[in-house]
Amino acid sequence: MNEGRREIVQVVFGLVGLIFLVRLFFIQVLDSRYAELADGNAILREVEYPFRGLIYDRNNKLIVYNTPEYDIQVVMKEVKNFDSARFCTVFGLTREELRMRFREMKIRKEYSQFKPTRLLNQLSNIDFARIQDYLDEFPGFYAQARTTRAYQSPSLANALGYVSEISKENLARDASGIYRQGDYVGQSGIEAFYEEQLRGKRGVRFKLRNVKGIEKGSFKNGEYDTLSTPGANLYTGIDIDLQQYGEFLMKGKAGSIVAIEPATGEILSLVSGPSYDPALLTGRNYSSNFKLISNDSLKPLFNRPLMAQYRPGSIFKIAQAMTALQEKVITPDTRIKCDRSVINCHGAHTNEDLRGAIANSCNPYFHNVLRRMLNQGVVNDPFGDTRIGLEEWNKHITSFGFGKRLGIDLPNEKDGLIPTPAYYDRAYRNRPWKFSNIYSIAIGEGENLVVPIQMANFAATIANRGFYYTPHLVKAIGEDGKPLPQYSERHYTSIDTSYFIVAVDAMEKVVREGTGQYRAKLADIVVCGKTGTVQNAPPLFDHSVFIAFAPRDNPKIAISVYVEDAGQGARAAASIASLMIEKYLLGGTKRPHIEQYVLNNKFE
Amino acid sequence: MSREVDISGKLDWVSVLLYALMVGLGWLNIFAAVYDETANQSIFDMSLNSGRQLMFIAAAVLIIFAIIIVDMRFYETFAYIFYAIILVALLLIPFIGKEVGGNKSWIGVGSFGVQPSEFAKFITALAVARTIGSVGFRMDSVRNQGILFVLILAPLALIILQKDFGTAIVFLSFLVVFYREGMSPFILIVGISMAALAILTLIVKNQWYLHGIIGVALVLLIIFGKRNFKRIASLTFGALLLILTIESFDYVINNVLPERHKKRLEALVNPNFDPMGINWNVTQSKIAIGSGGFAGKGFLKGTQTKFDFVPEQSTDFIFCTIGEEHGWMGSLVVVALFIVFLQRIVFIAERQKNRFARAYGYSVASIFFFHFAVNIGMTIGLFPVIGIPLPFFSYGGSALWSFTVLLFILLKLDAHRSQVLQRI
Known about the structure:
The structure holds two protein chains of two kinds.
Chain A: H1 5-30, H2 33-42, E1 43-48, E2 55-56, E3 62-74, H3 84-91, H4 95-107, E4 117-124, H5 125-132, E5 141-151, H6 157-160, E6 163-165, H7 168-173, E7 184-186, H8 189-193, H9 195-198, E8 203-209, E9 215-218, E10 234-236, H10 240-249, E11 255-261, E12 266-273, H11 286-294, H12 304-307, H13 316-326, E13 336-337, E14 351-352, H14 354-359, H15 363-374, H16 382-398, H17 421-427, H18 435-438, H19 452-463, E15 467-469, E16 474-477, E17 490-492, H20 500-513, E18 528-534, E19 543-550, E20 557-563, H21 572-586, H22 592-600
Helix pairs in contact in A: 10-21, 13-15, 21-22
Chain B: H1 13-34, H2 49-69, H3 73-96, E1 98-100, E2 103-109, E3 112-114, H4 116-133, H5 142-161, H6 165-170, H7 174-180, H8 185-203, H9 207-223, H10 229-256, H11 259-269, H12 280-290, H13 318-350, H14 355-379, H15 397-415
Antiparallel strand pairs in B: 1-2, 2-3
Helix pairs in contact in B: 1-2, 1-13, 2-15, 3-4, 3-5, 4-5, 4-14, 4-15, 7-14, 8-10, 9-10, 12-13, 13-14, 14-15
């Protein structure tokens, strides 16, 4: 009657064991989820944020540094007896805000009950000091220290750029896998361009902890821990005192100042007016301030030295002169009558040679010069001849760095525009064009567009008598480091070096006895410069332009100043440029009246 | 009466070896479960569970000698007297017991306590075996069956009164013995179906769906099949019984079962139910075991158990330490040890020459099996959390001694099996 029952019992015993082993195989070997959960339970992953590289000026003065701030993170599983009212009081939140924070946190993709997730961000050092003692009252809440940017002075905002949390789009686009949500990343200026050098490498520490969150030592004796590597410090060519002085002079004006050391291409100052205080774009108020700044009608985020494209005006005559000399259509001694019936002019000159024409900014002279250049009679057809001439002309002009971005170490640089035959074909919709259609480019008006940094680079090229280094802000990555390789390369123009002495003479003459003599001449320094007054649509005032370098021999500074709607170049721009030169070479101005003139005159 | 104290030649050394292996591994794992890297601890430290367990093991060895020395007929002869004593002890517990962890099942002896309910297991086994082994016992007699059920239900009921539900249901494992000794499998089948129904009742919130399904099944069975009166009557009776069962389960679950057991049942059928609350234990237990991987994290390298994520890590959830530190390979070793051990006991039971010894042997196998199945099943989420120890592995003196006595009485009987008259 009971046969087989023994076997049934034995089979059942064995079967249960088998079921257990299969089930165990599933949860232990096949399902990796449990291992992750266990790590989440017992291993606290502490990220050590690296210090972002510091930024110094050319005299090793600190410009940008880091200051601690704190994120409050929460491990939901560890939260016990949470007193939300008390939490709100301590952290200065309303209940509604707190509820919103929790809701936001829980919908984030990386949210986990077992892992620390950020609840509040960017408490300042002061805020944190206040709440630090109370943090113990809230189990499950931790403070995560990291750093934010801080600035020694409220200047250089557009060149420095700012740092903020990486956007979802950029995070999705980041193929390197370096960034995580909530990471800071340079968003513009040096911070963006040198992000790779500045960011450093994050460190991670794994700590064991028990169910109460009490630390139980390092995980596997720190085998997997990594130390954070701080980012490289950047040593810029900026002279922060000069920069601040430039911003002081540009107060209330729109425009830019770019000063370059000709011998190296290092940018001494890069003023964009109007600007903003870079400290506004740090910390907790980043978003609200950013909205405010980006909606400002004066566009303080618009980095004029690189992004504003202007007609160059009369400063362009120097480039024309160089081109004409190279093409041998004139000599320095060629005199041309100031025939004001072709094009208007100013001043009391009548029949100047090249140097005089530059010094007096004679429009008919350069009208004539351009005609000679474009219509050299290579072919008989005036249309075809102009086309050939323009091709040549474009080649020479662009060799000064005009018409295409220079490749400065900042994002968003604009090209400017130097017209080509193809450009006019498009503009004239393939109808024929010749010199008489396009002559206004002779005096830097018409279709030409240049960017202030290109003007300063132009001044530096003349200062160097024929070559330039691409302007750049960072002269050394890391202490005793080098700049990026492309900034140690000389760029020669297509003009013979010998012709540059003519430009130097002429620019000296401009300041000594020409249009620059009243406000750009300095007692101790030979300044070479050129004024420009760029036509503007009435009723707006013309733009005031000045380029210069000094001293004449072995120049230390080349500068371009562009002040929008401020009238003649001999006024605002020449004054500012000469004050900057004084400041840089002599440490300050001996002409307080000029400084007052710049600061108080409304240039209307 | 032939006294043969030296029975070493006849003792089943396979079982003894398996026993020693399991107790030894258990001891190491108890140390691993409470090990704290930051404190400089020794496995012999008497302030640790591992140190105390070693003492319990030493005591168990003494008990083994005592069992072997005592005359084999002692156990059968005094079975009912022990049984009476233990019933009295269980009756008294609600009055003189001390409460530990929600269960009032301990009788204090100095600083140590013993749990009479643990000893009730082997005593009941002896009583059941004696009854089955008595002259003229027939399993198909309703009266005899009644006696057996009274024998197991009395301690079960008394232990339930101590709110120790886990230990109480261990007594249901005797159904395996009854089955082996000739009880109709009908009762087992009904029992298992009841359990399945109970789970169904938990899953299907509205029991009317279940009633509906039973009704449809009944109609279909009547239509397709022989339509004689007896068949229709028995089918209808069965269906009514099922409906009644569902209703009563519903009633029991909602009105009789303590809240925590109800929640544990709920947690079993719904693994996502309240993972931070009632399911915390199972969730953490599964995390600990699951994180062990194939080869485990290594001895003393587990994080989940020793950092208290798993509760009761050296007693009821000791298997988590094994799973975490020794991975699937370790689990395989332990499960295999148990299966081999259980098969060995069945083998020993079957080679007995009298019915008493065989029934006792099956009792031993069933009780070990029940603990093994429920305990490991619980830690890997296949069974509700019912606090019963894993034999030989879990920390605790009463349990270890009770299991030791249970096993070694059988080995003592086995050693003398050739001396008894055949009464099967």
